[in-house]
């Protein structure tokens, strides 16, 4: 908003710290008079450039704004004062030091939560790394600095149903966005978010997943991971093991373990939570032996409890996909070719046996017998050796549905009461059934461990989002 600002107030800034000194020098050099003897100045940003919300813009953008307005609008404010205030703003920008360099963040709009967008946790999965497991990001940032004020590109969207393409999409998308409450903290709980979208769409920049207000008492992390065929194609004969999307998620959790302390988080207090396909993936990860070293617990929202496709099924699907692409072993296909073939190949909308409705099969992905898809983890014999439902979660877990209808239970509800309440849920959406299955599997496994048919207090009853 353009307005005139009192010169004395503009030139009465906050105390100067060491980082602001270079900006002060620049301000003194730039101050002066125009050819008519009038001071150059600006008439914008009446709230002052030290407003932290401006930090969501890149420094160069702010400088461009200053110089553009300064040369067109004579006002009461010296340009030196404007640049000086800009220096204080930039010096107060949230930043974190990682092994790769300094990460410059921004401040959420309307709340003082710091946000660091688009931090790479793996090498770009392009070229020879396409369809390969993620490779750790061990590089240094360019010039030792990462501008994390803007979202990075989202992963390639494989379906229009959940697609989100702003600001852009790219195969180079393996990043995390970290949210932190204001102030200096240490040992805060950490919440790591897996977005939904059928494992074919979604990204950290989707407005529904704005985590600014969630990170008021904890560090919150949003993960981007490969989707559709780029994340879940499996074809052993071509050297593609599959499950890349889940491996991305695990790599991001490993990044959290190594780096979250710099943001004020505690690597031993990590909660993994996801919705829909994000919950399915979280449940699968919870069943892995390495889960205990990555997370303290898992929360599944409207998902979990899926049967993973057998090895043979996914190999056949991968082979059919390669035929549809007219792809030889050494061929390279464009992203457009990969996605257009994925969206039109009949094998992804047909099933045999009981469920022969293509729409139902396509919507339910790999959840029904003999259905085929390329958007879910599968039993590859390496990462997933047994069905997650058979293994059961290796960490405490909470499962539920995000549908509007609620089923309140008494604090002393028994196992049978909880199971009975779950079975009464109206199955308006199929994933509610799988949430129940996940819960049932978890009860069974814990019952074996406890020897009493249910959870021990230390295993489940004492666990909560804030109960690390």
UniProtKB/TrEMBL annotation:
Q: Which UniProt keywords apply?
A: Hydrolase
**SUPFAM superfamilies reported for this sequence:** alpha/beta-Hydrolases
Give the Carboxylesterase type B domain ranges: 93-411
One Pfam annotation reads: COesterase
User: What is the E.C. number?
Assistant: 3.1.1.-
Under the heading InterPro entries, the entry gives: AB_hydrolase_fold, CarbesteraseB, Carboxylesterase_B_AS, Type-B_Carboxylest/Lipase
| Family from the record | Belongs to the type-B carboxylesterase/lipase family.
Protein name as catalogued: Carboxylic ester hydrolase
Q: Which organism is it from?
A: Zasmidium cellare
């Amino acid at each position: 908003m353009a307005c005139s600002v009192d010169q004395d107030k503009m030139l009465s800034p906050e105390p100067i710290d060491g980082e602001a000194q270079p900006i002060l020098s620049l301000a003194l050099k730039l101050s002066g008079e125009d050819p008519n003897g009038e001071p150059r100045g600006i008439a914008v940003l009446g709230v002052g450039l030290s407003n932290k919300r401006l930090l969501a813009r890149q420094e160069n953008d702010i400088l461009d704004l200053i110089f553009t307005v300064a040369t067109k609008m004579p006002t009461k404010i010296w340009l030196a004062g404007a640049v000086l205030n800009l220096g204080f703003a930039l010096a107060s920008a949230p930043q974190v030091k990682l092994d790769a360099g300094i990460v410059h963040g921004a401040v959420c709009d309307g709340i003082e939560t710091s946000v660091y967008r688009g931090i790479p946790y793996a090498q770009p999965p392009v070229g020879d790394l396409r369809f390969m497991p993620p490779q750790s990001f061990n590089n240094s940032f360019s010039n030792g600095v990462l501008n994390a004020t803007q979202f990075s590109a989202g992963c390639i969207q494989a379906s229009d149903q959940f697609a989100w393409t702003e600001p852009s999409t790219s195969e180079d998308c393996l990043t995390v966005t970290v949210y932190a409450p204001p102030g200096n903290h240490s040992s805060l709980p950490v919440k790591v978010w897996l977005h939904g979208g059928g494992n074919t769409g979604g990204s950290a920049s989707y407005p529904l997943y704005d985590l600014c207000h969630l990170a008021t008492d904890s560090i919150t992390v949003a993960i981007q991971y490969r989707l559709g065929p780029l994340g879940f194609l499996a074809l052993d004969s071509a050297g593609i093991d599959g499950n890349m999307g889940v491996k991305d998620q695990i790599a991001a959790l490993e990044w959290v373990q190594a780096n979250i302390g710099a943001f004020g988080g505690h690597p031993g207090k990590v909660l993994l939570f996801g919705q829909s396909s994000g919950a399915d993936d979280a449940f699968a990860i919870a069943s892995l032996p390495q889960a205990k070293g990555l997370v303290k617990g898992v929360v599944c929202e409207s998902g979990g409890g899926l049967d993973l496709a057998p090895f043979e099924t996914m190999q056949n699907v991968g082979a059919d996909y390669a035929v549809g692409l007219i792809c030889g072993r050494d061929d390279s296909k464009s992203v457009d070719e990969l996605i257009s073939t994925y969206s039109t190949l009949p094998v992804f909308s047909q099933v045999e046996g009981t469920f022969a409705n293509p729409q139902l099969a396509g919507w339910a992905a790999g959840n029904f017998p003999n259905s085929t898809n390329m958007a879910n983890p599968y039993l590859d014999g390496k990462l997933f050796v047994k069905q997650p439902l058979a293994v059961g979660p290796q960490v405490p877990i909470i499962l539920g549905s995000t549908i509007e209808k609620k089923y309140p239970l008494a604090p002393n509800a028994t196992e049978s009461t909880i199971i009975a309440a779950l079975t009464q849920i109206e199955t308006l959406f199929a994933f509610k059934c799988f949430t129940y299955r996940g819960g049932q599997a978890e009860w069974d496994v814990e019952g074996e461990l406890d020897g009493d048919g249910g959870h021990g207090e230390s295993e489940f009853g004492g666990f909560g989002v804030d109960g690390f």
